[in-house]
Amino acid sequence: MAHRFSIREIARQAGVSDATVDRVIHARAGVRAGTIGQVKQAIVDLEAQSTQLELSGRQFMIDVVVDAPARFHMAARRALEAELPLLRPAAFRARFHMRERWAAGSLVLELDAIIRRGSHGVLLKAPDTPEIAAAVQRLFQAGIPVVTFVTDLPRSPRLAYVGMDNRAAGATAAYLMNSWLVGCHGSVAVTLSSGIFQGEEEREMGFRATMRSLGGRRDVHYLPASDGLDSTAYELMRTALAEYPDLSGVYSPGGGNPGLARAWREAGHMPKVFIGHDLNPENALLLADGTLSVVLHHKLQGDMHSACRALMHFHGALPGGWTPPPTPIDVITPYNMPLGPHR
C-alpha cells in the first residue's frame, strides 16, 4: 500500500490505533474489512488535504458527520476540501463520516465514538431527533463544539448553525410558484426527503405560510417523504399524478428530482413550474434542459468557511465570539448558472 505518510498521521486521520494501521499496511491478519477500508480512505483523505500538513500555526482536527444521499456527500467533501487551504490563521484537517442511510442508532454511536477519539469540532448534518440532540449534549459536555449545517438541531446545545434561512427559502419558492401560476387553476405538490430534517421542515413551513398569505386558493398536496432517492421520488410522483391529474407545479425542498422528472415524462407532460434546491450536477442538467424552472441555491463552501470560523472563535484562534449570518439564497435560472463544477 504505497503512501508517504507516517503511521501516526494515518492513525489519527482514520481514528484507529497505530498498531491497527501497521497491520493494515503490512497486510497482516486480524483486521476487519471495514477497518481496512477506513485506513485506505484515511490515506486518500490525507492526499487530498496534503497542503494542510505543511502549514504552520494552530492545527485543528475536525469530524464531518453527514446523513444524506451520496451526491451530497461528494458536494460536502469537495466544498470543505476547497475551503481548507484558505483558512487562516489555523490549519484544519478533516475526517469524514458520511452515509446515505445510517442504521438505527449508528449515527449516535459514531458521535459517541468521536468523544472517545477526541476532536476539535464536529460539522453535523443529521435528523432533528431527541437521540441525536442528546448525543450533541454529550459532545458539548466533553468540550467538543458542534456546528450544524444545511439543517439545524435547534433544541441541542450546538455551537452554531450555518446555512441558508430555510423558512425564507420556502417563502421564496412560494412567491415564485404563485407568480408563475397566475391564470392557472392547477394544484401544486411538495415533496420532502424526510420529515425529521429540520431544514426541510422549515422550507415546507415557509412555503405553506407564504402560499396562504398570498391569498390564493390553490390546492397544495404534501407528499410522503422520499429519502431524497430518485427511485422513491419517482414512485411517489407517479402515484400523485394519478391521484391529482390537475397538478401544475412541484416544489422539491429535499431532492430526488431526476426521479420526479421521470414520472412526469412518463405521464406525457411536464409541470408548468418545477422548483428545486441546490445546484448539484443532476439539478444543473435538469435546469439546463428546461425541466427545472429554477433552483434555490446557496454556496456550500461558504457554509464550510463559516463553520470553521465559528470553531476558530470557540478555540480562541480568532478573538471574541461570532454568530454566522445566514448564507445568501441564490435564485438560479438557465440563464445565470455559474460555469464549472456544481456544488
UniProtKB/TrEMBL annotation:
The keyword tRNA processing does not apply. This is LacI family DNA-binding transcriptional regulator. Residues 4-71 form the HTH lacI-type domain. Gene3D superfamilies: 3.40.50.2300, lambda repressor-like DNA-binding domains (1.10.260.40). It holds the Pfam family LacI. InterPro entries: Bact_Solute-Bind_Prot2, HTH_LacI, Lambda_DNA-bd_dom_sf, Peripla_BP_I, SBP_2_dom. PANTHER family: ABC TRANSPORTER PERIPLASMIC-BINDING PROTEIN YPHF (PTHR30036:SF7), D-XYLOSE-BINDING PERIPLASMIC PROTEIN (PTHR30036). Its main location: other. CDD domains: HTH_LacI, PBP1_sugar_binding. Signal peptide: none annotated. Belongs to the bacterial solute-binding protein 2 family. One of its GO terms (molecular function) is DNA binding. Keywords: DNA-binding. It is found in: Cell envelope.
